[in-house]
Design goal:
Elements lengths: L1 H10 L2 E6 L2 H13 L4 E5 L5 E5 L2 H16 L4 H29 L5 H14 L4 H11 L4 H5 L17 H22 L1 H21 L11 H15 L14 H12 L7 H20 L1
Helix pairs in contact: 2-4, 5-8, 8-9, 8-10, 9-10, 9-12, 10-12, 11-12
């Protein structure tokens, strides 16, 4: 975001004037485009909106237009320019919905790949010998496998193991709800890096509080991490479009994790660690 803002400052460096309201500023900029003038509206610290031009010559012309605009900001010409922008926005929204449908069919997305691996390994549970062998290769149950044999993938791969139909069903539903929009908006690399780091740290934290040989798994630590990430990004309405976390969900997640410490058979430290890592990452990205 900071890079985009810097780029905008370089393209439209000259301030031509101010408009009090966002909707009026956008309508005015749309009108300028119909007059062959390119400009940008940017929110100022005062809450008003600055109108920025590409150079001093355009700024002079925009100042003259601002004088006319100030006399009657609701004139037909300005309203029509805003209406045309709304029509373009609706068309873009329809294309985005169509794109979402196509995205849902993409088998090469990170979201779909993780879901497929979870389902595949869960199906092995119907064949105990194969499931146990898979856990012996991929599970995090002995510290020496990581420290002595450098099998670092074991810090990640427990997320693919689930122990029961409700366990995998809940995790995949939540993963689909948060991972798919995040990948669509911020990209594969962002989702991949978030998932790997959250998985490694949350699994390591859980392993530190149980005795060897450890048997645990599930995608829920990463899911809580995504909730924490989106929760921090959503404060102040600063999350990208489509990634705004429902209000209260982050609080409810913290309550659920707290209740989990009074129950057995739940990887509580994995959940808490995932939420904390995701929240810190989201706070960092929000500040950027």
């Amino acid at each position: 975001m900071a890079q985009l803002q810097k780029l905008a400052d370089e393209v439209f460096p000259v301030k031509a004037g101010m408009v009090a309201r966002r909707d009026l500023a956008l309508s005015f900029v749309d009108y300028l485009q119909t007059q062959g003038l390119k400009a940008q509206a940017r929110e100022e610290f005062s809450g008003a909106w600055g109108i920025y031009a590409k150079d001093a010559q355009d700024a002079s012309r925009i100042k003259l237009e601002l004088l006319r605009f100030g006399e009657n900001p609701f004139a037909k010409a300005y309203r029509q320019a805003a209406w045309q922008r709304g029509a373009r926005t609706q068309g873009a929204a329809r294309q985005q919905r169509a794109g979402f449908s196509l995205w849902m069919l993409q088998p090469w997305s990170v979201t779909t790949l993780v879901e497929a691996l979870c389902v595949l390994i869960y199906l092995l549970s119907f064949f105990p010998g194969a499931f146990n062998q898979a856990y012996a290769w991929l599970g995090l149950y002995r510290l020496s496998d990581v420290t002595a044999s450098f099998e670092l993938w074991r810090l990640i791969t427990p997320i693919f193991f689930h122990f029961g139909i409700l366990h995998i069903a809940f995790n995949l539903v939540m993963w689909e709800a948060f991972a798919r929009p995040l990948e669509r908006t911020l990209g594969r690399l962002k989702l991949t890096s978030l998932s790997i780091v959250i998985a490694m740290l949350s699994n390591a934290l859980q392993f530190a509080f149980i005795s060897e040989p450890a048997v645990f798994g599930g995608l829920s630590g990463v899911v809580y991490g995504l909730i924490g990430y989106l929760g921090m990004r959503s404060f102040g309405g600063r999350a990208p479009a489509g990634l705004q976390l429902p209000r209260g969900l982050l609080t409810v997640s913290v309550i659920f994790i707290a209740f989990g410490f009074f129950m057995s058979g739940i990887a509580n430290f994995c959940h808490a660690g995932g939420l904390a890592v995701g929240a810190l990452w989201g706070l960092w990205d929000r500040r950027q």
